[in-house]
Amino acid sequence: MAEEVSSQMNSLSISETNPSSSATISLVSGDDIVFKVEPTIAKEMETVQSFIDETDGKITTIPLPNISSHDLPYVIEYCEKSIAGKITKEFEAEFVKKLNNEEVKELFLAANYLNIKKLLDFLSQVIADRIANKSVEYVRRYFGIENDFTPEEEAKLREELAWTFTGVDPDDEDEN
Amino acid sequence: MTTFACNQDLILENMSDVETNLDLIQWLGDDMSFKVFSYLDNPRDLVRASAVSSSWNDFVIENGLCKQLCLKLIPEISGVVRSIEVDYLFKVDGNNPGYYYAEKRELLNRNHRVYAVLAFGLIPMNNCISQAICASSTNDHLRESYTNTLEPRDITEHGASYWSSIGQTDPSVTETLLYRLYSRMCLVTDIHVQPFQGLINGSSPIYSAKAIRFRLGWDNDPMEIDSKFGLRDKTAFSGIWTYTSPIFPMSQENKLQHFKLPEPVLCFGGFLQVELLGSVQKHEEDDLFYICISHVKVVGRVLSQNFIVRMRMFPPHGACSVQYFPHAHTRWCGCGYVSNS
C-alpha cells in the first residue's frame, strides 16, 4: 500500500503541471498525501461530490483534513469495489480482518464525514459485532468512554438487570 | 451546506472534541448511533450498553431500543403492548413499585427493563403445558384420565390415549379441563385441541364438543391446587381468570383443531382452562352424551426458568413481578410453583 501511495504522489506532481488530467479527482489527506481517484469514486463519497457540484467541477483537488493517509486507501478500496459491484461477504470479511479496533473507529468516522452509505452500513455492523457479548468495561475502553456513573448508580444498574452482566466474552483488548 | 470551508471548520472542531473524549453517540448523532445499535440483536447487549455511560444510558432508554428489539424478535408482542404499558400488568424487580409513573423517564426506565426481560426471557415452546391438573368429570380415572391429553398420539403402546367425561343425558352440559403452563408468565397465540374418535361395533364416532372457549389466569392459592391434585375432579376452580377467549365452534373431525386467539395474550398466573361447551355424540351402549379429547396443545412462549414470577395477591389481580435467578430452579418454594426441568 505504501508503494502505491508514493506512486500516486509522483503521478500527482506530474499531473499538477499537466492541466489535461483534470478529469481525475485529487483527495488530499490530513497529512498532505494526495490520492488521485476516478470521478466515479468521488461520486460514492457524497461529501466530495457535493463539493465538486457546488464548484461546477472547476475544483478537483479536495482537502480532507480529518482523514489520514492511513485510512483513505481503505475508503478508496471499498468505493472501488462498490462501483465494480464486487462487495461480497468474502471481501467484507477480508476487509475487516485487516482492521484493528482503532482503525474501524477511524474508518467509521471517515465514512460518516464523507457520507458513504454502503461503507457506513457495513461498519455499523462491524462496530455492533464488537459491542456484542462484550463486557461494559471492554466497550468503554473500545470507544474511549469515561464512566460517568457514581459507584452507587452503577451498582444499582447492575443489580437491577443482573442477568445481562454474566456470560460475556473475555475482555481481550483487540480480537485481531 | 453553505461553503465547504465553513463545514470543514465545524468538523475539525468536532474532531478535537472527539480526540479528547470520544463518545461515539455524541459524535455521530442519534441517527448514526441508532444505526449501529440496530445491528445488536441480543437484548443483553442493549442493557449492557445502557450501563456504559450516562449518555449511552439516555440514548438506549429514551429511544426505547429494548422495545424495538423485542418487537423485532417477537412480533406477536405488539398485540400485548397495551397490557404492558397501559395496564402495568407486571414489573421487573427493582422497579418503582408504584403503578403510576410521574416522570416520563421513570416510565421509560421501566419499559427498558420490562422489554429487555421479555425479549430475552420469552422462549418459544412447542407445547406450553407442563401439567394436566384436573377435569370437571372423568369417566374412568385409570384408562381415560385427563393426563392422557398431554400425549400427542391418540394410540400408544398402552392402547387408546384420551380423556373422557362422564356420560350426560343433557347435551348442553359444559365440561372443563385445567392445565398448568410451564411458567407463570406466558405469551399464548394458539391453542390446538383434538377430539377423540372411538371405535365401537364397526362405527367410529367422534366425541367432540359443540364449541370451545379458553380462559387464562391464576389461582388464589397455588398450594391448594397441588393438594387438590389428588382429588382428580373439580367442578369449580377458585382462581381468577384474567383472559377469556371468544367461543369457537368445534368441528366433529378427528384432527388437531387450531384455535387462534384474536390477539396474542400475555398470560399471568400460568393456568389454562379449556371449556368444552356442550356435547354432540351419544355413546351407543348407554345412550348418554360424552366429550372425549385426545390432545391439547398451547402454542406460544414461556418465560425462561431463570426468571421467577411473583403474582400480586391484591387488586389488580394478575399483575406480577419478575425476578432473575442466575441458576435455573427446579422448585420455587412457598408459592407452589413447580417447573419441570
From TrEMBL, chain A:
<dbReference type="GO" id="GO:0009867">
    <property type="term" value="P:jasmonic acid mediated signaling pathway"/>
</dbReference>
<dbReference type="Pfam" id="PF01466">
    <property type="entry name" value="Skp1"/>
</dbReference>
<comment type="similarity">
    <text>Belongs to the SKP1 family.</text>
</comment>
<keyword id="KW-0833">Ubl conjugation pathway</keyword>
<comment type="pathway">
    <text>Protein modification; protein ubiquitination.</text>
</comment>
<feature type="domain" description="SKP1 component dimerisation">
    <location>
        <begin position="117"/>
        <end position="163"/>
    </location>
</feature>
<dbReference type="InterPro" id="IPR016072">
    <property type="entry name" value="Skp1_comp_dimer"/>
</dbReference>
<dbReference type="InterPro" id="IPR011333">
    <property type="entry name" value="SKP1/BTB/POZ_sf"/>
</dbReference>
<dbReference type="InterPro" id="IPR016073">
    <property type="entry name" value="Skp1_comp_POZ"/>
</dbReference>
<dbReference type="GO" id="GO:0006511">
    <property type="term" value="P:ubiquitin-dependent protein catabolic process"/>
</dbReference>
<dbReference type="InterPro" id="IPR016897">
    <property type="entry name" value="SKP1"/>
</dbReference>
<feature type="domain" description="SKP1 component POZ">
    <location>
        <begin position="25"/>
        <end position="81"/>
    </location>
</feature>
<dbReference type="GO" id="GO:0016567">
    <property type="term" value="P:protein ubiquitination"/>
</dbReference>
<comment type="subunit">
    <text>Part of a SCF (SKP1-cullin-F-box) protein ligase complex.</text>
</comment>
<feature type="region of interest" description="Disordered">
    <location>
        <begin position="1"/>
        <end position="23"/>
    </location>
</feature>
<dbReference type="Pfam" id="PF03931">
    <property type="entry name" value="Skp1_POZ"/>
</dbReference>
<dbReference type="InterPro" id="IPR036296">
    <property type="entry name" value="SKP1-like_dim_sf"/>
</dbReference>
<dbReference type="InterPro" id="IPR001232">
    <property type="entry name" value="SKP1-like"/>
</dbReference>
<protein>
    <recommendedName>
        <fullName>SKP1-like protein</fullName>
    </recommendedName>
</protein>
<comment type="function">
    <text>Involved in ubiquitination and subsequent proteasomal degradation of target proteins. Together with CUL1, RBX1 and a F-box protein, it forms a SCF E3 ubiquitin ligase complex. The functional specificity of this complex depends on the type of F-box protein. In the SCF complex, it serves as an adapter that links the F-box protein to CUL1.</text>
</comment>
From TrEMBL, chain B:
<protein>
    <recommendedName>
        <fullName>F-box domain-containing protein</fullName>
    </recommendedName>
</protein>
<dbReference type="InterPro" id="IPR055336">
    <property type="entry name" value="At4g00755-like"/>
</dbReference>
<feature type="domain" description="F-box">
    <location>
        <begin position="28"/>
        <end position="69"/>
    </location>
</feature>
<dbReference type="InterPro" id="IPR036047">
    <property type="entry name" value="F-box-like_dom_sf"/>
</dbReference>
<dbReference type="InterPro" id="IPR001810">
    <property type="entry name" value="F-box_dom"/>
</dbReference>
<dbReference type="Pfam" id="PF12937">
    <property type="entry name" value="F-box-like"/>
</dbReference>
